[in-house]
């Protein structure tokens, strides 16, 4: 309630009642107070950004990341095992390095050639859901320009080396496999990972990581929210993650961030500070990361008006209707997918997409069938491509 001070000058009146000030004492008080404020600024933690029910890994500001490793830094070689009959042809082998990452959701998305995309899909199928990392295409002939027909008479040995920073977080050397070749050994040489494998036919070979079991912390949540039908096979072990200095998600030491496991369609997080609240297990806002340029987190699209005929979510300002709404409800609604962060938007030719905080849905325009897209695979590709060179050892 405002007090009526009349015509008196309250400042002058108060000053008149003050005793004589010890200015030296006041100066020390100011210094101590300033030091206390500085200490508080360095030790206090700001309230984390929140997604549907709990904290999300979101940077306070987007910081342009340093350039990522170029594919030219990947090297490969082909040699004949001792006693091989094709030694002369092998010496003329040609090797082409393939980038098999899938980044369909980025605004500057890069379309992979169909043959490479098919090879990556074959790797996923052959490994029951593994994650492609890098590939090599081998051609062998008297001049190195042709493909030797049929099977080779002797087993050949190939080596594919790539920067350790291309190895996804939560993936160890023992997790690396090759398809369709036979993995022999994965080694750390300097700051490169080198994978040796044997083959008997020339063609395209993909190096990647095998799928992993769901870690115990996430098992109950994973099963209760649809299991592999919703999240897909898991692609990493558990690892601690935080927003790094480049504004991208990075692996950190234990206890410094939430515990994360990435699956094909999304990522799950365990937040120790929320134990006992019922919200300690939550999906990460993976779609916010994969839609950004250079691995940066981006907010939801600008809000749209409530168009009616569906369900409007004022939390993010977007509508869900038609086949997307039916799939949204069948999959568990906000608790599983989070809130919509876009309207229904054009996707690949003949398809329409809609992004939610945790998952991405795609509708086949002709049939109206809706499926879940592999945002988790994109999430891994974004993390590894945007990470500065040399920042991770296996």
Can I get a quick summary?
The chain is an alpha+beta fold and 394 residues long. It is built from ten helices and 19 strands. Among the domains are: 71-209, no CATH class; 216-284, no CATH class.
Based on the model shown, name its key terms.
394 residues; alpha+beta; five-stranded antiparallel β-sheet; four-stranded antiparallel β-sheet; 19 strands; 24% strand; globular; disordered N terminus
Main β-sheet description: 5 strands, antiparallel
* Helix content, binned percent: 10-25%
Flag low-confidence runs: 1-21, 29-54, 60-72, 83-91, 143-149, 389-394
Average per-residue pLDDT, rounded, comes to 76
End-to-end separation in angstroms reads 65 Å
Strand order of the largest sheet: 10-9-11-12-13
Q: Total helix count? A: 10
The backbone outline, from C-alpha atoms, is globular
Strand content: 15-25%
DSSP strand tally:
19
Order of helices and strands: HHEHEHEEEEEEHHEEEEEHEEHHEEEEH
**Class from helix and strand fractions:** alpha+beta
State Rg. 28 Å
